[in-house]
């Protein structure tokens, strides 16, 4: 399937890399975003058209359906893209469930239908996780006794949290990366540490992920799945995102550490323009968000193989030469010993031994 025009439905910081992929493939880009000053806007060329999401139907009609819609890292955008690509491009969508009503509760029901254990729904007065029914990622999730309209309440499961990045093509699923999520609180990761990848289709992890993706009828594209390993060594999915991982994971982290451009794989798997070529899935890497970074480390003390970015979109300078309130750091090394020597500098010392223990446990158990 080849379309001269691509409608890029954006939202947030992480669609710049998607835009660059389309430019590299010489596509005529039409950007759809409802925000007045969206991040990508300052990088656009004069030839790139911009419209509101509500105008998609009109633009599609004016181009006689000769436009493919793509939104790799935005939940709502991914849903909209599937709905407007179907039926013009038939099976070139992520999942048919995007064509109907979809939210966190519906996803849970689809998993339960395939006998996949998920967090239990609890009574309104009980203490647990309150999640917005159509929320995205870790946004609007609260550990509380309170209740809200259009929220669901479920049990809070203690354990080791992991995230899994996948790519699918014509119902065939591949795990691209699996990471230990080191949490800042009950919902948000302050550090993501890549696990050692082994291609093992009989592994506990692969069987679980395949079962989840099949339950959600995933045909093509990237997905980001978060799970908890509980005290019974059960892997329980706590969040299934029908799009690639955000917060620099897909757009920067995986490219730098395992040399995989997941966003390009996402585009190619959806369009079928070229065959997917997935190379070696190995490498050692971690991404740190500001809350976990050792505050004494200055920008001029970062090692040469470190990547630093201010999440406001530029590497702002300041008198103290510190890392900035909205920073992230990516470290990577092909050698295990060298990587962990560097990793130890950036993590809080009290947490290091427990992190290494959990990392080793996951590597031994999951693969």
Uncertain parts: 313-322
| Separation, N- and C-terminal Cα atoms | 36 Å
**SSE pattern:** EHEEHEHHEEEEEEHEEHHEEEHH
Helix content: 25-40%
> How would a textbook summarize the main sheet?
8 strands, antiparallel
Return the structural class: alpha+beta
Number of strands: 15
Radius of gyration: 21 Å
Shape: globular
- Residues in β-strands, percent: 25-35%
Number of helices: 9
Overall average residue pLDDT: 88
Strand sequence of the main sheet, in spatial order? 12-11-8-9-10-13-15-14
Description:
With 367 residues, this protein is α+β, with helices and mostly antiparallel strands. Helix content is 26%, strand content 25%. The protein has 9 helices and 15 strands. Mean pLDDT is 88; it is low at 313-322.
Write the layout of secondary structure elements.
Elements: E1 5-9, H1 16-24, E2 28-32, E3 49-51, H2 56-62, E4 67-70, H3 75-85, H4 104-113, E5 128-132, E6 141-144, E7 151-154, E8 160-169, E9 172-183, E10 189-194, H5 204-215, E11 221-229, E12 235-241, H6 249-257, H7 262-271, E13 284-289, E14 306-310, E15 327-333, H8 336-346, H9 349-366
Parallel strand pairs: 1-2, 1-4, 2-3
Antiparallel strand pairs: 5-6, 5-7, 8-9, 8-11, 9-10, 10-13, 11-12, 13-15, 14-15
